[in-house]
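Researcher: I'd like a structural prediction for the single chain below. Treat it as a standalone chain; there are no partners to consider.
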Amino acid sequence: MQTKQAESPEPAARNEQETAPVTAMRDLDFSQILDTELLQKQCDAVAEANRNRPDVMRTDLLAALKKASAEGRQKARAALMADGGGLNCAYRLSWLQDQIITVLYNFATTHVFPQQRDKFAVTAVGGYGRDTLAPGSDIDLLFLFLPRPAEETHKAVEFMLYVLWDMGFKVGHATRTVDECIALSKSDMTIRTAILEMRYICGLQRLETELETRFDKEIVTGTGPEFIAAKLAERDERHRKAGDTRYLVEPNVKEGKGGLRDLHTLFWISKYYYHVRDQAELVKLGVLSKHEYRLLEKADDFLWAVRCHMHFLTGKAEERLSFDIQREIAEAFGYHTRPGLSAVERFMKHYFLVAKDVGDLTRILCAALEDQQAKSIPGLTGVISRFTHRTRKIAGSVEFVEDRGRIALADAEVFKRDPISIIRLFHVADINGLEFHPDALKRVTRSLALIDNKLRENDEANRLFMSILTSKRDPALILRRMNEAGVLGRFIPEFGKIVAMMQFNMYHHYTVDEHLIRTVEVLSEIDGARSEDLHPLANKLMPNIEDREALYVAVLLHDIAKGRLEDHSIAGARVARKLCARFGLSQKQTEIVVWLIEEHLTMSMVAQTRDLTDRKTITDFADRVQSLDRLKMLLILTICDIRAVGPGVWNGWKGQLLRTLYYETELLLAGGFSEVSRKERANAAADALRAALAEWSQKDRNTYTKLHYQPYLLSVPLEDQVRHAHFIRQADKSGQALATTVRTDSFHAITEITVLSPDHPRLLAVIAGACAAAGANIVDAQIFTTSDGRALDTIHVSREFPDDADELRRAATIGRMIEDVLSGRKRLPEVIATRTRNRKKSKAFVIPPSVNITNSLSNKFTVIEVECLDRPGLLSEITAVLSDLSLDIQSARITTFGEKVIDTFYVTDLVGQKISGDSKRANITARMKAVMAEEEDELRERMPSGIIAPAATARTSTPTDKKAGSPA
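Model: Treating it as a single chain, here is the predicted structure.
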């Protein structure tokens, strides 16, 4: 029986707040994976039967090895499903690969190149050198040669490599002598790391032994700090490229922060610096406690299980744990849905907690290395920059000292003597602008049990926490350090419940705890007047916020009740009421915090899904807000919340919507809201446009200013109004019935297409259909009618290309498609059918279609709000049905939240009246749900293509320009 050290199987699902069950080491039985002796005999028989037919011999050999490999991998997959052990699976696959390579080596040096037996060694490097292999991993091999190898030695290696490649393996290889390996290791850190992990497979073993001995003596000795600094610098660069957070909701299991590569870095450093073969020896050396070593084992096993499942499921070396496969991986691990959290969300919470454990272990190892007083390498900075101990006192503190810009403990008993010092550590670091010594954070992690109810209720501890939260320096940095060390979740148990919690949707890019900390980060940015260009209004309002403390608390706690059965805004307000008293807030401040959390989604939803030119929208919103102070704070909270969702979610369009809603509501709350005031403001906007066109003739200035109604003048920024004026005038001079212009905005990852056309009830449907046909996904749309009966529609589509020139060419193609469809040169049903014929449906998300029709949100219009799973062409289909139902779309708000779309349409019937009558509303609902569910609709199939402009008159030009990053 061939055996290898491994872990015993363990239950897959677990309580997310705990680590996986302890696993006992045992010998792993590989006999069920492959009968190596039988395979060797089969291959020898192939050679005997085809001694004079080398081509047939090679073909039959390949078939035998392929069959053995495929069957062995299937058995390894079955074992993974049975015992759940990730490392066991990686060991089995590594062992299987060893046997295949050994049999192949024996075949090559016995039957093909018999003079080459024991003339070279085959060794495994990389992850394969650590005895672990994922189903889709590269096979990294180092072939060690004797000095001056014969030509036939190279041919024997080539024979082996070509067979492995023909088997479908991705083989990374190098052929070197021992001297060459030593020479290259001195200058190349990658080669040095590869040889560090080298493991003998077959062939002339003394070559591997010689290299190992010389490598340890000539390369490793005395170079520990140099190697460590290089590996940690590599790690930091890798984290930077991956997003520098372990809380991305589609993490890279191999390369991401808290992933397997971070564990590999710990392995390399341990092996290189401490000269250990097995990480269990780190416990004997006092580097890790037994508990920490068990955490390391469990993290390694869990991450390997996830990676192996991913590779088996996708049939390739997929390292990103994407939404498409998270459900199936969660199912394979045995997770079930619980109240408030789905099975996939529970699985991902487990993943992020493991990633956090990896971060803790990294800090602990770094602290131990500093204790070893290793020497630094000049010019290299990072965690291990210097190891000499030079400390100085910190003014006003006896518990802590400064160690080269980092806060450290004055002695090991600081926290035991006074547990409040755990919170004080972070406060002192903040007010002195210090980073954290790894040893201090290690001792924090090991002292978490001291944070009990007594400490949580302590006035001084809460005062220190509020000082950290509302700091004028960098509160998010300190809060993140507190969270990573486990302090935040212990000090605020309600926060602990949302640590590592993900939301299974494409809108939120981070876990809930990371989102909340990033929200504080944005608030701090606004508070410090560092975002004037991005948020001019918020920047102006922030200095006048009276209850700054209340705003910070609301921002930190606004999503604290996520993952519960009830509405998280209502539950969160209840949690906040309890915490505010603990934090020392007054009754008045508490009520503000409670109200802000209850309403934290309101302003965003109103701004993005309601017509802000409709007076009823403003009066309803003002009724909920009731005061200017609340309005100011809610605006700032809303900005922080959207900004912290993820990169690319915030854009200038959303900023403009929020500012418009703020100004309209401010007027009403200040008693100045009236038609006269609105008219005056529209007139002022028209005057501003007229002034901006100063170089035009008086006639043109008047003509093109009078084209626009109040909604346009009050909601479109002046710079865009000027651009539109030039665009419309150019189209008129060219005698164009319709025209398009495009611009791109790399800063916001948005491309904008503006369409000028004769107005028509089906205009939006046709434009949206043309965009779908061109492969463009609409994220926002502004619809305006001019006083001379034309439509000026501006749509925002998701950007596809990083290069502006490429994106502008794509946008011009979309613009031409819109013109072709509007002019009748192409038929809409045909071009859409061509585009969507082979469209792949998203399997990851399920959102039941919903339709809400109400007459209470507007005095003039019926508001139809639809919510469903987004897909290309959806907007075109929905607007086509609305037109087919004889509804006139007066305005629309197109809003996407990741995979979910919420579209709001303000409509009337053809005589300008609201939609009344239950049967009519029921018919609208049924037809809308049918199109959202992609059901067949006979009426829609018979709909004409929606030609608007006669082909003969549609002479177009497509001016393009690049838009600079505009302020939001």
